[in-house]
Amino acid sequence: QVQLVESGGGLVQAGGSLRLACVASGSIFRLNAMGWYRQAPGKQRELVADITSGGSTNYGDSVKGRFTISRDNVKNTVYLQMNSLKPEDTAVYYCNANYVDSNWYMYNSWGQGTQVTVSS
Known about the structure:
Elements: E1 2-7, E2 10-13, E3 18-26, E4 28-39, E5 46-51, E6 57-59, E7 67-72, E8 77-82, E9 91-101, E10 106-110, E11 114-119
Parallel strand pairs: 2-11
Antiparallel strand pairs: 1-3, 3-8, 4-5, 4-9, 5-6, 7-8, 9-10, 9-11
């Protein structure tokens, strides 16, 4: 079993910054793409950003230029630096990881989510 544990959410004023972190732990043979998704009340879950094991990144249109995703492959950790936050960024942010376990099976897992609230 692999666990994804997020941290760093909270309440911030518009224009402020937050940094999220997600640590993957367990029987990981290879950690592939990792990413962040978010879901606001009454809306579908959407991609915020993802990053391959080689460092290639992809961002949702609404966060381009404001958010930066990065990862530490030694620590099995993915980060999301969020700057210039807006009230519409308010959502539960979920970490996602694609990985191969020690039995060579591929999985896609989700973290439990961390709340980000941006006040106007």
